[in-house]
UniProtKB/TrEMBL annotation:
The keyword Hydrolase does not apply. Gene3D superfamilies: D-Amino Acid Oxidase, subunit A, domain 2, FAD/NAD(P)-binding domain. The keyword Cytoplasm does not apply. It comes from Didymodactylos carnosus. GO terms for cellular component: cytoplasm. Keywords: Signal. Residues 1-19 form the signal peptide. Residues 5-376 form the FAD dependent oxidoreductase domain. This is FAD dependent oxidoreductase domain-containing protein.
């Protein structure tokens, strides 16, 4: 049986998850076109925190719950069938409040806190239990999914996509013997300094770079503005993170902080101890922008932000004082205007799909997004989740 030729543009967690689910559904003729490297952007630099029911929106809530449950199943499958460990585990999630400058002598902490937390926590709250929160290593997950796709015949092509070639689908109806020109479809993905990629179906998973694809449709005759608006609405939001490497306690906890600065401001970084003894710390979101460097490895790093993350983490646990910070990094996450991801067929084209705008929940929601999109592409199945996330809501302009 011949399966459709599928071209996925963007090798982050969304591209990997869509490829994985298409593969699971029997589509093996897949090429992932990635500009820099698999998981080079947010998908390799995120925390990997997963929550079952933290979303306010009903449909996005369904997406998150389904995805949360899928993470466990996929992690198990990758481990058992492919010997791939993505460091998945359930965690207890705490909100802890500390002050930059404490005036009182540190009190004995409450029993809710693990011993690893040595800082003077003046308030704590349980945000999630092992029934509702978990973590995964995002880079290992993204690379693991791609390895599965490759093992079934799919391939990764390193190259910069920069346009499409189009064709109109010409139909011939019984009623009217004239040829009817129906909607436009993409036939080839153009690459910088490389041969184009021909495919039957194209899926854009460009994360925060999605806006750059708005110009790729300039040759697609009458539909251009409507198509472009669905891409041009995506912005990037930069955030920093650091990773302490080494033998830290591996208790299954995740920490959301309220850190009261000396000037009485509040900073809210997150700390995720990982099962391998690493401690991941992130925070300091900046203004959204459409001015991103092409290469994810060239995102500028604000050393002051990284230093502050380090200082706060050491304040939470003094055992970090002698630990090595081996990773200091920044990356952009993709933001949509209404905070809801764009998942589905691009309005105005027959065979181009998109999955982006997952904001700070892209790792969590990747797996069910991939599952939903694969069902849409293969069976034409539209769920309430896909109705809510339909990219066409942005095709008409503001
Ligand atoms: C600090 C931080 C912490 C986070 N923590 C969490 C968390 O704990 N839990 C959670 O669920 N989410 C988290 N997120 C969010 C999550 O990381 C993102 O939502 C997710 O990674 C987005 O994935 P993506 O595949 O859409 O985009 P990306 O990972 O950005 O992938 C897009 C890919 O497209 C490629 N590309 C772009 N343009 C082209 C082109 N022209 N040609 C070819 N390839 C191209 C890029 O090189 C890139 O590899 C966090 C994000 C940040 C920044």
């Amino acid at each position: 049986m011949t399966t459709p030729r599928i071209c996925i543009v963007g090798g982050g967690v969304l591209g990997a998850a869509v490829a994985y689910h298409l593969c699971e559904a029997g589509c093996t003729n897949i090429v992932i076109v990635e500009r820099t490297g698999i998981a080079c952007g947010a998908s390799g630099r995120a925390g990997g925190f997963l929550a079952k029911n933290w979303s306010d929106s009903k449909s996005v809530g369904q997406l998150s719950t389904a995805s949360f449950l899928l993470h466990e199943k996929v992690a198990e499958k990758l481990r058992q069938e492919y010997n791939i460990d993505v460091m998945y585990r359930r965690v207890t999630t705490l909100n802890i409040s500390l002050k930059e400058k404490t005036t009182t002598t540190p009190q004995r902490k409450s029993d809710t806190l693990p011993k690893w937390v040595t800082g003077d926590v003046f308030k704590e709250e349980i945000l999630g239990t092992e029934a509702t929160t978990a973590q995964v290593h995002p880079g290992l997950l993204t690379n693991g999914l791609v390895r599965v796709v490759e093992s079934k015949g799919g391939r990764v092509l390193i190259g910069k996509a920069n346009g499409f070639l189009f064709e109109t689908i010409t139909t011939h109806t019984e009623k009217d013997h004239h040829h009817q020109t129906a909607p436009v479809q993409a036939s080839k993905l153009l690459l910088e300094n490389q041969d184009p990629v021909e495919a039957d179906i194209f899926i854009l998973t460009l994360g925060p770079w999605t806006y750059q694809a708005a110009t790729w449709f300039k040759d697609s005759v009458s539909f251009k503005p409507n198509i472009s608006r669905q891409l041009d609405c995506i912005q990037g939001l930069k955030a920093h993170s650091i990773v302490f490497k080494g033998n830290q306690p591996t208790e299954p906890y995740a920490f959301f902080l309220n850190y009261v600065t000396s000037a009485n401001g509040i900073i809210d970084p997150e700390i995720y101890p990982r099962p391998n003894g690493d401690i991941y710390v992130c925070g300091f979101g900046e203004q959204t922008t459409q001015n991103l460097p092409d290469d994810a490895n060239h995102v500028s790093i604000n050393e002051t932000s990284c230093d502050k993350l380090k200082e706060i983490a050491i304040h939470v646990s003094s055992t970090l004082k002698d630990a090595n910070v081996e990773v200091r990094q920044a990356c952009y996450l993709p933001i949509s205007p209404d905070g809801i991801p764009l998942i589905g067929k691009l309005y105005g084209l027959e065979n181009v799909y998109i999955a982006t705008g997952h904001s700070c929940w892209g790792i969590l929601n990747s797996l069910e997004t991939g599952h939903q999109l694969a069902q849409l592409i293969i069976n034409g199945q539209v769920s309430p989740i896909l109705n809510t996330c339909d990219p066409a809501r942005f095709s008409k302009g503001s």
